[in-house]
Write a structure and sequence with these properties.
With 435 residues, the protein is of the alpha/beta class. Helix content is 47%, strand content 22%. The protein folds into 2 domains: 11-156, Reverse transcriptase/Diguanylate cyclase domain (Alpha-Beta Plaits, 2-Layer Sandwich); 164-434, EAL domain (TIM Barrel, Alpha-Beta Barrel). A hairpin with a 4-residue loop joins strand 7 (178-187) and strand 8 (192-204). Helix 2 packs across helix 3 and helix 15 (377-385) crosses helix 18 (421-434). The protein binds ligand C2E and magnesium ion (MG) (2 copies).
């Protein structure tokens, strides 16, 4: 982009330098172009000098509102904002912040003038070169100008970003920075913990524990979940042996991403891993949405897993695509109701009805039901009345490291949470039955 007006502002790239020094990083470069759409109309009313003051004021507002950004008045009516961020929603956030900071009207010579903006943005790996990023942001701006959306969001750089995150996680695996946390599932009637869910965490050298929601969606989009999942299976088997040695024989459930379900190579590798570890007692949590993508292959592989002793659980039920036809065909022993319906259970009118009918449906299909996201005694009591078989959630325990889980199991701490259940049980049952 040709630079007609160049505002001499210091490039504040301290944030960027700090990120560049890391070699394992989620950091990405974001470029947002802010265009003053009513530049010509304003020039007619307040002249060239007036409209330049408007542009300078926009630059000042952007500098004040986007921390550590480089802000440059790079064309007649365009301002370029570049910054580095490791947040997954950095581009959307950047676009929103830039727009919000600019939209207030401007007072020029005691008169208020509206600013009409168009924005385009792009995101890419740090160090890929900003020329490409600016080109992508310009394409987004053109898309926005054509009226598709006043706030264009351009994802051309997304592919590279996903690959960069998958590379960083590969490196993290090499360096032993990945770990599993475990969250128990409590059997309501038997008042016992018979299984746990393994949830991966990235023990990042600078950021501490990074949640899977920050990197798994990117690795899934890049279709590179195989290595991380095989590592998870191996780690879960090793941890299960430690639990067993301490007297706790628990089935360990592992989350399996959609694209792996239809992958014959993955199914074969799982078969080999299980054959090499005959003592392993695993379960796979899969979503219905991932089965629906390629149902024939997914169902064939799930049946194969079931035959080698892996228990199949349907995760996040109700949150994605559902099909009763597939539900019937899946060799699943367990159905997990999404936490979306559980966290609001006692404050919503409809959620209890949905949950109760889902429990009845699962029982009719010979499956056990797990409620995930159980955070209150009231929810636990209500689920118990409804016949829910197992509960999982912060009320019982957050996902914790293996050592913490061992202490938790040894001290029987989950009984603290379930003990109070009976107290609120009768009152809640009465309320619910009236509804
Ligand atoms: P998920 O399998 O549905 O796991 C449940 C998520 O809900 C976990 O988040 C857990 O910490 C959280 N949770 C548990 N109890 C409560 C509660 O009482 N209230 C609330 N609000 N949340 C609760 P986490 O660990 O951040 O995992 C998020 C998602 O990341 C998982 O959802 C799963 O889809 C994915 N994930 C985690 N580990 C792996 C993995 O090894 N492989 C794959 N493919 N996906 C994984
Ligand atoms: Mg799960
Ligand atoms: Mg879930």
């Amino acid at each position: 982009m040709a630079s007609l007006h160049h505002l001499a502002l210091p490039r504040r790239l301290n944030g960027k330098r700090a990120f560049e020094q890391r070699d394992v990083s989620l950091a990405r470069q974001i470029c947002v172009l802010v265009q003053l759409h009513n530049y010509n109309a304003l020039r007619r009313t307040i002249d060239v000098a007036g409209v330049r003051r408007v542009m300078s004021e926009l630059v000042a507002r952007l500098v004040a509102s986007v921390p550590d950004a480089s802000v440059e008045w790079s064309g007649r009516d365009v301002i370029e904002v570049q910054f580095v961020s490791d947040r997954p929603d950095a581009l959307a956030d950047g676009l929103t912040t830039c727009r919000r900071s600019c939209i207030a009207s401007m007072v020029i010579d005691d008169e208020g003038h509206d600013v009409d903006l168009v924005l385009g943005g792009a995101i890419g790996p740090v160090g890929r070169g900003s020329a490409l990023l600016i080109e992508e942001a310009e394409a987004a701006l053109a898309e926005a100008q054509s009226g598709i959306s006043p706030l264009a969001r351009w994802n051309a750089g997304q592919h590279d970003v996903d690959d960069a995150i998958a590379d960083a996680v590969d490196l993290a695996l090499d360096r032993g920075q990945m770990m599993l946390h475990y969250q128990p599932k409590v059997h309501v009637r038997r008042q016992a913990i018979e299984c746990v869910e393994a949830l991966v965490r990235w023990n990042h050298p600078d950021r501490g524990l990074v949640a899977p929601t920050e990197f798994i969606p990117a690795i899934e989009r890049a279709q590179r979940m195989e290595r991380l999942t095989l590592w998870t299976i191996a780690q879960a088997i090793e941890d299960q042996r430690r639990l067993r040695a301490a007297g706790h024989d628990l089935r360990v459930f592992i989350n399996i991403s959609g694209h792996l379900l239809a992958d014959a190579r993955f199914a074969q590798l799982v078969g080999e891993r299980i054959a090499a570890a005959p003592d392993a007692r695993l379960g796979f949590e899969v979503t219905e949405t991932s089965v629906i993508r390629d149902p024939d292959r997914a169902i064939a592989h799930l049946q194969q897993f079931d035959r080698i002793g892996i228990s199949i659980s349907i995760d996040d039920y109700g949150a994605g695509l559902s099909s009763l036809a597939y539900l019937k065909q899946l060799p699943a022993r367990e159905l997990k109701i999404d936490k979306l319906f559980i966290t609001q259970l006692t404050s919503s009118n409809r959620d209890p009805l949905i949950v109760r009918s889902t429990i009845d449906l699962a029982h009719a299909l010979d499956m056990e039901v797990v409620a995930e996201g159980v955070e209150s005694h009231a929810a636990l009591a209500l689920l118990s009345v409804m016949g829910c078989d197992m509960v999982q959630g912060y009320l019982i325990s957050r996902p914790v490291a293996l050592d913490v889980l061992l202490t938790f199991l040894t001290e029987d701490r989950f009984r603290d949470a379930t003990q109070d259940m009976r107290a609120s049980f009768t009152r809640l049952a009465a309320t619910w039955k009236r509804a």
